[in-house]
Amino acid sequence: MILGGYASLAAVGLVTLGGIFIGCTKGDVPSDVHTETYTVQAGDTVWGILQRYDTRDNMNMARDWVYSHNNIHGDIQPGQVLTIPVGR
């Protein structure tokens, strides 16, 4: 949907106006999110990793982002390198 020439990204609830993000909630993961790489250790879970790197109130979207961007289709394995969203 176009609003006065500015794109509205309904998928993440985000409207951009000249590079300023408006309408983001803490559960959103914008496409230009800051990321870091993390090497999975024995006993790690995606939830546990996200709790160390991401401070969102609702991390369901962040978890889904990690699974999607890292092509995870099951359990993570020690030694696997993941891209993780950071902060907020």
Concise structural overview:
With 88 residues, this protein is of the alpha+beta class. Helix content is 20%, strand content 26%. It has helices at 46-53, 60-69; strands at 2-3, 6-9, 14-17, 20-22, 35-39, 81-85.
Topology, please?
Elements: E1 2-3, E2 6-9, E3 14-17, E4 20-22, E5 35-39, H1 46-53, H2 60-69, E6 81-85
Antiparallel strand pairs: 1-2, 2-3, 3-4, 5-6
Pfam family, one: LysM
Protein name: LysM peptidoglycan-binding domain-containing protein
InterPro entries: LysM (IPR018392), LysM_dom_sf (IPR036779)
Write up what this structure looks like:
The chain is of the alpha+beta class. The chain has one domain: LysM domain (Membrane-bound Lytic Murein Transglycosylase D, Chain A, Roll), CATH 3.10.350. The protein has helices spanning 46-53, 60-69; strands at 2-3, 6-9, 14-17, 20-22, 35-39, 81-85. The strands form 2 sheets. Strands 1-2-3-4 form a 4-stranded antiparallel β-sheet, with no helix packed on it. A hairpin with a 4-residue loop joins strand 2 (6-9) and strand 3 (14-17). The model is unreliable at 1-27 (pLDDT under 50).
